[in-house]
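User: Please predict the structure of the protein below. I'd like the answer in C-alpha cell form so I can feed it into my own downstream comparison script.

Assistant: Understood. Taking the following sequence of 270 residues as input:
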Amino acid sequence: MVFSVASKTLASCTRKVAKASLARGLSTSVPQWEGGIPDSVKRVGQPSAFPNEYPGMVYEFNWALNGDGVTPLKRAAFRINKPLDLKVAGLAAPKKNPLKVKGAAIAEAGSDTLLFEDFDAACQEARDLLSLSDKLYCPEGHVPGTHTGVRVISNSSKLTPDILAYLDRCPKKSPPDSMPVTCFVVEGHDTEFAGFSIEEIEVPVDSEESESAADLGYQPKVAKSVASVVVVGKTPSVANIVGGIEASHKSLEQDELERAKKAEEESNES
C-alpha cells in the first residue's frame, strides 16, 4: 500500500517536472520577435467588414446617381449595360435588338417654347420623383454610331428593354463616370413634359494631358458641354426619349467644334 502511494506520488512529480522542462525548452527554442507578431502573420485572417451590397444596391453606382441628382432611397437601382443585366433586374429581353427608333422633336431649354426656369423646375421634380421610386432602371450605352455616352434613369420597367436595345453597347467602367447625356424618365405621372437642355461645365484635365495639379499648384480645368433630357408622363414614349438623346448629341458635337475653332483662332493669333 505504501509502495503504491509512493509510486503514484513519483509519477505525478515526474509529469510536473516534464511539463516544466518542456515549457522552458519551448520558451528558449522558439524565436522571440521584437515588437510583437511579425507582419507576415498579422496580414493573415484579418477581419474586415463586408459591404451590404446586392443586385440593385451597389455603393459605387448609387454615388454616381447621387452625382446626377437622384438618390435611390428604396435601395433598388439597377445599372443595365447588357441583356444579362435586364435578367438580373427582373426584366424581359427586348423583342428586337438592335432597335431602330425614329426620334420625335422635343423642345430645347432657352428656346421660344421652353424657358430655362421651366426646364429646371421640371428636371428637379423628375429627380425627386425618381428618388422616391420603388425601383430604378438605368440603361447605359452610346448614341448609335457614336461614342457619346448616355445614361437613362427611369422607373419604367416597360421602356427599359427598348432603350437598351436602341443604344449601342459601351464599356462598363468602375467606378461609374458621369455621362455626357443624362435622361430622367418618369412613368405614371399626370403631368406631361418633354424637353432637353445643354449646359457648359468645367472638368479637371487628365494628368496625362498636362502637368499634375501638385506640380502646378492648382487643378487645370477645361470647358465641356453636357446634356439633360427630361421626359415625364403617364406613358412616356421611346420616340420622345430618343428625340432628346439625338438632339442633345447634335448640340454637344456643335459645341465641341466651336471650341476647337476658337482654340485654333487664339493659337494663330498668338
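That's the full C-alpha cell string. Residues 238-269 form the longest helix (32 residues).
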